[in-house]
Automatic annotation (TrEMBL):
It comes from Actinacidiphila rubida. Acetylated. Deacetylation by the SIR2-homolog deacetylase activates the enzyme. Its cofactor is Mg(2+). The gene is acsA. One of its GO terms (molecular function) is metal ion binding. The lineage of its organism: Bacteria, Bacillati, Actinomycetota, Actinomycetes, Kitasatosporales. Residues 92-473 form the AMP-dependent synthetase/ligase domain. Belongs to the ATP-dependent AMP-binding enzyme family. ATP binds at G390, E391, P392, D414, T415, W416, W417, Q418, T419, D503, R518, R529. Residues 534-615 form the AMP-binding enzyme C-terminal domain. CoA binds at R195, K196, G197, A198, T314, S526. This is Acetyl-coenzyme A synthetase. Catalyzes the conversion of acetate into acetyl-CoA (AcCoA), an essential intermediate at the junction of anabolic and catabolic pathways. AcsA undergoes a two-step reaction. In the first half reaction, AcsA combines acetate with ATP to form acetyl-adenylate (AcAMP) intermediate. In the second half reaction, it can then transfer the acetyl group from AcAMP to the sulfhydryl group of CoA, forming the product AcCoA.
Amino acid sequence: MDGDGETLANLLREERRFPPPPEMAAAANAGEDAFRAADADGDAFWAAAAARLEWAEPWTQVRDWSRAPFARWFTGGRLNVAANCLDRHVRDGRGDRVAFHWEGEPGDTRTLTYADLKDEVCRAANALLELGVRAGDRVALYMPMIPETVVAMLACARIGAPHTVVFGGFSAEALRGRILDCDARVVVTADGGYRKGAASALKPAVDEALEQCPDVRSVLVVRRTGQDVGWTDGRDVWWHDLVGAQPAEHEPEAFDAEHPLYIMYTSGTTARPKGILHTTGGYLTQVAWSHWAVFDIKPEQDVYWTAADIGWVTGHSYIVYGPLANGVTSVLYEGTPDTPHQGRWWEIVQKYGVTILYCAPTAIRTFMKWGEEIPGRFDLSSLRLLGSVGEPINPEAWMWYRHAIGSDRCPVVDTWWQTETGAHMISPLPGAATLKPGSALRALPGIRAEVVDDTGKPVPNGSGGYLVLTEPWPSMLRTIWGDEQRYIDTYWSRFPGYYFAGDGAKKDEDGDIWLLGRVDDVMNVSGHRISTTEVESALVSHPRVAEAAVVGAADATTGQGIVAFVILRGDGGGDTPDGELAAKLRAHVAKEIGPIARPRQILVVGELPKTRSGKIMRRLLRDIAENRPLGDVTTLTDSSVMDAIRDGLPAAA
Ligand code: ATP
Ligand code: MG
């Protein structure tokens, strides 16, 4: 995919380097030793990681790849995920430790210790049993960011009923599609939740979705906002009535390591969402290990915060399962970052003494747009480590994060992974790695990643290609729910024997990996293949630009022409954008990357279309740039954004 290594080398020209802080290096949970151990014996490495959990029955085989690409890990082993996340901490004297400092958007708060959470989960497990849910039955969750969401997930896990969490922001139609796809019979929801300063209803979407889901027999409803709800007698039941009446004792049953834990639908950034199936033993092993190693978790001291929605895989692995398996204290926040003011996150960091913050580049670029004086008003000195996930992080956004949030002191770990991988795959270990802004560096211990060319051969250092994973890993997806053929076709067919991630990447002269965005998004301009990430990073490196999205639009002379949508920085001067600025930005890209990457068109917009997890949906921008009707918008956060962009555009777009 790298048609012209020379003109497109701008990310590789990034020369800033940040060695680990000496205190972190001295006390790091994992470093070069872990790489050495995993390189010497991968199965022994993962067996040791699995031994951090509590098993009711030991496994007989670590990895079984005999039916590739269908993997089995820890064959014969049995465990209960909820007991690993809760019961063993309570039993071993950690029951009084706070599991979650929950902060509602209106400012109401709740503190749940590990003992509190265990009691609630036992009650909810008993309630689900009373509703007739049995091991293997699917339960759909359509919830706000409240403690009951975590409780419901763990209650499902405790009784072996796979959950499927659907973002609270999705439409009735999206919810219905997912309920039908996995054939869920019970739905857990709430009257509503708080977002952007107001109660936002959830129950009506459930009611609408269920008009066409005849097999759903029960809806368990949490009262969060107190707003009026429609009620179907015999089907709907209040959480406080049913769960509240249950005993806080429930004996956890141990499930097979390959028992299904959950189905999570992908973000839908590029296509119709796929129901990704994760199972029990391998998933919890890798999620717990990666959380502990990548975030250097010290459970007695840290206050950990993944500022993301639970309805995204990041929430599953790094709000719920990883942090609880490691017994750390977390923050859980219900609402949006600008309610009631643009400093809300920083106020939360200050209030709870957050030590580790994990969020998406989209949030960081939004904060850049708002300006660094906003976080500057708060005491962020408790922070010691920052993480990024979800999209390539532009070097300038990385630098801003490290500087404005991390006081030039905190390492930033850029973690590459996917719904399908279940856990971190490529990421620095903060106590060991010398960081490069914009690079996820190399595969974690026990993980094998490669960048290959069209024929599947590894590219030399200094070149780009397709990112693949060359060996199975414990938390890998086991299939696409109900569609084994799509699983094989999507991931295992492009390069036989390798998992194809769908992302492009480059290896620098040290062999470190730089993610370049989706292969589907790569542009072809006069025969040169140009990545969206590189052009976007060049735009974001201009002081006026906070965020950029770039697409290739059909062009009569060049094949594709580059069209850039940009959002300007709040502190970069709010004057109306004009032809002069566009010309400056086009020249800036030409200087940073090369004349071939100069955008044909630059359009200043107020917002970009994003998924609920904050990913830019370039395919919709391509529809606009090519004057087509929009494709599937069901996973878009806010569909009015598309109208606003369209209305603001010159007719030629
Ligand atoms: P769909 O597969 O339905 O189009 P999606 O790929 O956006 O949706 P996710 O599984 O949530 O769904 O996202 C994984 C993708 O996000 C990766 O394939 C990659 O493109 C991007 N990504 C995640 N983390 C990083 C990162 N640290 N650097 C670069 N890209 C990242
Ligand atoms: Mg994907």
